[in-house]
Amino acid sequence: TQSTWGHNSHSAKMMQQRGLPVMVFNTKQEREKGRKAQLSNVAAAKAVADLVRTCLGPRAMLKMILDPMGGIVMTNDGNAILREIDVKHPAAKSMIELSRTQDEEVGDGTTSVVILAGDVLAAAEPFLEREMHPTTLVRAFHRALEDAQSVMEELSFPIDPMDRAAMTNLIKSCLGTKFSARWMDLMCQLSLDAVMAVKTEENAQITVDIKRYARVERIPGGTMEDSCVLSGVMVNKDIVHPKMRRRIENPRILLLDCPLEYIKGESKTDVEMTGAKDFNRILELEELHVQRMCNDIIALRPDIVVTEKGVSDLAQHYLMKANVTVLRRLRKTDNNRIGRAVGATICFKTDEAKEEDVGKGCGLFEIRKIGDDYFSFFEQCVNPKAVTILLRGASKDVLQEVDRNLQDAMNVARNVVFDPRLVPGGGATEMAISQALIRKSKAIEGVEQWPYRAVAEAFQVIPQTLAQNCGANVIRVMTDLRALHATGGNATMGINGLTGEIANIRELGIWEPYAVKVQTLKTAVEQACMLLRIDEIVSGLSSAKRQASGAPNPADAGDAEGMNMANFEQ
Q1: d(CA 85, CA 554)
Q2: What is the mean pLDDT of residues 367-385?
Q3: Rounded distance, CA 92 to CA 467, Å?
Q4: Annotated catalytic sites, by residue?
Q5: Which of 197, 354, 376, 563 has the smallest C-beta neighbourhood within 10 Å, fewest atoms?
Q6: Beta strands in 342-434 (DSSP E)
Q7: What is the mean pLDDT of residues 463-488?
Q8: Which SS3 state, helix, strand or coil, does residue 492 take?
């Protein structure tokens, strides 16, 4: 091996001395370097931003997307649209991930963050073409981001999360851009009631887990006005025996995570029987085991037993004789929510259940039929910490979109509970930040001044897009708005999203949570900086394998922005 290595290294030295190229990488790999890679990333980011640009503001257009399973998604939610889009360029995939991150962090602003990131990258394009180093651009962008956050701190003002009128106005600002704007008051009440119900405070730490404890049940049929927040939990289950009670007032509820049936072998069980009586003895033991579990349960005098596992026919018989209602095979999450709502503790063995494990916080248990399904309602709970939001509507598509809007509204209310500060909406905050940064840019020395100023102007894309989606004269409106903000003292002047005219946002009452706005700016600028620092795209697949797998060819990625957009629109 040493002799072979020595021979190869000697050959490489000889080739270098003769001026012949030394091939280090696989020649079949596709590589894209330097400015070409950076400009291709900028083009991909602009293409993704242009895709959702018309989905911003109250006059937003809807997108209809066919998913791979043949279903239809109709929405103007940026995350829901980009989640269904199939893209090939790695930078475009990164932009889609940006929207998902925003949705997980604050739940709103998914469209704004993609548009802003696309425009910040577009602002860097002329500097890249003039051979300015990306590190200089990134340094200027980070400096602009820090200054933007300090300006936003000055614009923000506190709000009392317990003030229901102020919180309702805030949620209306969020829902004004959504499909469910026509049911604005109802949606505000639903989201606010749900968030305040699941809010818990322990050791001076506030927790609002709407994902786990505020479940939305979508049931087609009825009208949207029939929707409500139950003071308890609803599950899609019926009783296991027809003679069990279907309505119980002030029930005692026992929650189990164990099967009420004889123990089955894990994989293979061998039993050796020597006489005819052995078979009967085995059956007796099984019956005794089930009877012992039922006696343990009956000793606690519960009215309802809920278990995540199965219930045998024999157990149903014993419990029905004791006038106990049984629900079986519930999901773990549903069982947890029932426990939070009624104050019960889930037991893993019947012989270990105690009186304090029984839930007594439910006022009414009732089974109702809605459409073709039976639902079990645990209602009128005393201070429930888990709720069910019952949504009714004309069709599944309408309910899905209303559900997405409701999640955004609940996230907005949750954000204000954690960080009770607001900033002006309607593009006023972005324009105020833009003008403040333009004034600060004059004091910056060196080449950093120009990319810093370019980022400041890129922030104006939000009010510009709002005006554009209203069909207003964008150039005239933006010129007037810039002039108002340049004079100072007009930080609350923005765009009326319904008419496209300049308006005082304070008078319109359009506010946004500080947490959403600052997360949007930070995510967009940091994403732009990350993409600018990429100077080479290397594809690990050879050309033949790439064509077989349908993976992207980096060399084709940056041909033209128009081609990227055409691919998306197809």
Answers
A1: 19
A2: 91
A3: 26
A4: 77, 110-111, 408
A5: 354
A6: 346-347, 364-370, 373-379, 387-393, 421-424
A7: 90
A8: coil
The DSSP result for 129-156, as a single string, is HTT--HHHHHHHHHHHHHHHHHHHHHH-
- 148-157 pLDDT per residue, tens: 999 999 999 8
What whole-number percentage of the chain has pLDDT above 90?
A: 43
Average pLDDT in the chain: 85
* Residue 93 burial class via C-beta count within 10 angstroms: exposed 0-12, middle 13-18, buried 19 and up: middle
DSSP symbol at 314: H
Record the tokens describing residue 446, joined without a space: 């060196």
The owner of tokens 């967009």 is 524
3-state secondary structure of 391: strand
The H-assigned helical ranges of 299-363 are: 313-321, 332-342
Cα atoms found within 13 Å of the Cα of residue 296, Cβ hemisphere only: 18
Separation in Å, CA 277 to CA 12, 263, 273, 289: 87, 21, 9, 18
How far from the centroid of its chain's Cα atoms is residue 316's Cα?
A: 41
Three-class DSSP category at 77: coil
426 contacts 510 by C-beta, under 8 angstroms: yes
Residue 266 in tokens: 């894990």
Beta strand spans in 34-186 (E): 63-66, 72-75, 157-158
**85 CB-contact burial (10 Å; exposed 0-12 / middle 13-18 / buried 19+):** middle
Cβ-contact 539, 554 below 8 angstroms: yes
Span 97-105, mean pLDDT? 88
